[in-house]
Prior knowledge:
The complex is a heterodimer of chains A (577) and B (145).
Chain A: H1 11-18, H2 23-29, H3 34-41, E1 45-49, H4 62-68, H5 79-99, E2 107-113, H6 119-134, E3 139-145, H7 156-162, E4 168-172, E5 193-197, H8 203-211, E6 218-222, E7 230-233, E8 240-245, E9 250-254, E10 261-266, E11 272-275, E12 283-288, H9 301-304, E13 310-315, E14 324-328, E15 334-339, E16 346-350, E17 356-361, E18 366-369, E19 377-383, H10 390-403, E20 407-413, H11 428-436, E21 440-448, H12 459-472, E22 473-479, H13 492-502, H14 507-511, E23 522-529, E24 552-557, H15 568-575
Parallel strand pairs in A: 1-2, 2-3, 3-4, 4-5, 5-6, 6-8, 7-9, 8-10, 9-11, 10-12, 12-13, 13-15, 14-16, 15-17, 16-18, 17-19, 19-20, 20-21, 21-22
Antiparallel strand pairs in A: 22-24, 23-24
Chain B: E1 2-5, E2 11-14, H1 16-19, H2 23-30, E3 38-39, H3 45-60, H4 65-75, H5 80-93, H6 96-111, H7 115-122, H8 130-139
Parallel strand pairs in B: 1-3
Antiparallel strand pairs in B: 1-2
Helix pairs in contact in B: 3-5, 5-6
Amino acid sequence: MEKEVPLYLPEGIIHHIFSFLNTKQRAQASLLSKAWLKAWRTNPRLDFDDRYFHQIKNPVCKFFEDQRNCSLKHPGNCSSCEEKFRAHVSNYTLLRKHAYQDHHIEEFNLSMTLIKDDYVACDLINTWLGFAVEFGVKVLQVTLHQGLYSSYTLAIGDILPKAESLTELRVKTCRFPMQIYSERNIMCKNIKVLKFEEVYITNEMFHCLIAGCPSINDLVIIDCRGLNKIELINLCSLKKLRIYVKNDLNIKVDQAPCLENVELLSLEWMNFVQLGTSPNLKSLSLYSGRCIRNGQLFDDFVTKFPRLEYLRVIESGSFAGLERINLTSHSLKHIHWFSNSETPKELDIDAPSLASFSYSNQIIPNLSFASASSNMRSCISICCPHLIDYSWFLRLYKLVLNLVPSRISLGIELPHAKHGFQETIEDRLIAMIASTCVPVQVEELKLYTVAKWSPNIDEHSCINLIDGLLLACHPKTLVLPKTKVHLSAGNFMIKYLLNMLADRRDEESCKSTCTKLWQNDLKKVVIKQPPLDCNTSLDESVNFESGKMQIIFALEWDDNASLNSSKARVRSRYLEP
Amino acid sequence: MIVLNSSDGATFEVEESVAVQSQTIKHMIEDNCADTSIPLPNVNGVTLARVLEYIKKHAEAKDDEEGLKSFDAEFVKVDQASLFEIILAANYLDIKGLLDLTCQTVADQIKDLTVEEVRAIFNIMNDFTPEEEAKLRNDHAWAFE
């Protein structure tokens, strides 16, 4: 047998292999041979994480776990583990400094736990960061777990001016100093990525810092106290911006010609948001915990954001926002609008390139689409109000009509117990709908309920609701709410539908007299899910798995009955503005 | 077409558009060192053939994510010695995708094994004295919990 040659790998390759291992695995691999140990000691990517030094099962160490989760204040002490960690980092950095000066550092990641008033640790961290900077670090990430007290102040005045090579700085749970005491301004011409999470930094400090980062590409600010007014002006390289604040968002962005992606989130209001012209903006996401009230945000997309493709607006508060929204854009491809209030009441959209439109709200808006095409997918979700009357159906019908010829998916959230008392739906409603509405073909009609609330609509009203919906639109797919109970225990709506549709399952029964007006138009019914044989009798004896069963029907309608027919005269009445 | 010569004299022909996935070859072409053929003294014939298999596949099926994933998974099912030959070749030829794939494979193997097992499988000679190794283990005790 051939003598096997012992493995020789150049150091650079061992470093590359290390990049696919975590800290612990690397430390183990350093024992393989002297070459691997040296590679470990000269690794350009350093990861120091104190979690490996705490034994999870040790209840005293659990304090540090909890500190990470910011749940405990004090006391507790497994300082021996933390000390071992700090000794490890100090030893490593000292050895590196003395024995391997020629080996630069690319990345330095530090994740450790501080307790209150841990000034010794603060000094140590500053020393380590200084070392990293001295060795040419490019990517610096510092995550401190400090519970409620962020006592560490990043030695920014010392670090940044010397950190010429720094391209990425990501910091979590630190404080920045209130001001810089040196005369020079901070100048970090190479910084491309800045991420501050739970950092305490004042407005002045932040703007001073940003002014010194002309190459910044990617800026992320998450929950930074002290920062309540942000102005980002003349940042020529800024491409991605993500700002998440707990309070009101006050931000002005201007002269950022490379901006492509903006994501703004506030748990409160979004009243002071000013976005200047951004010729390259592709994606804009706005989330407000309350609502958005500044109308000029949506003005003039054509000149301000000529390349915008993706717009997402989420207002999760039930406060009234803008009543009327007018969106005109040649480039928009996707619009996603979610609102939890009674606004907007009117939505005018002129977006010929739109491929998908998603809208979800409590109420049915007056929607006008200047240019819906058959390439577009519309996804509408509406909640049933506590009074369902003819005007509600009419508004729903008009909404769907305005979305033709796009492929429409209509979701109706059934009234549930949380809404309180539900008015019954009158019978004469059905006749009114039948006589005025020519049914619109839609891809999907989905009836659903919100997780834990069971529908509180009475049987008769439920039947009227379904009849009304099937008179207004003819869905190719009908999706019923997930049922948690045995069929026999009664989810009458499902039972009702199964019975109604069961009658249409074969040619023979299609010819028999129908009890419902919409049944006339129904040609064929197939149960898509669960896969049941057409001849299975759908009665109480069918036993569905609780919790997850969702019944889906595939329906085929008689084309003549729908909007494509000679009843176009009736149709034109509704298409007039 | 570019002609490549391995260390043991084998010749391979490959399209230039495919060959430039190797930054090394790309620079050689740009610097006009590729008149007749490109000599690759650091790569033997067998390994070069495998590397070319990789870059050809990645050139032709560029957009087929699923297909490439399964190709890559099969590609690295080789013996240790060959795997390391490919790593060295990918490093020398500067083919990022191949280097990442092969190093990730080695890393995945290392992850689950003990130090002794890794030494055995990868044929790594233990050049520590018992005292040195014991001290190291002690210093790195935290990694062995």
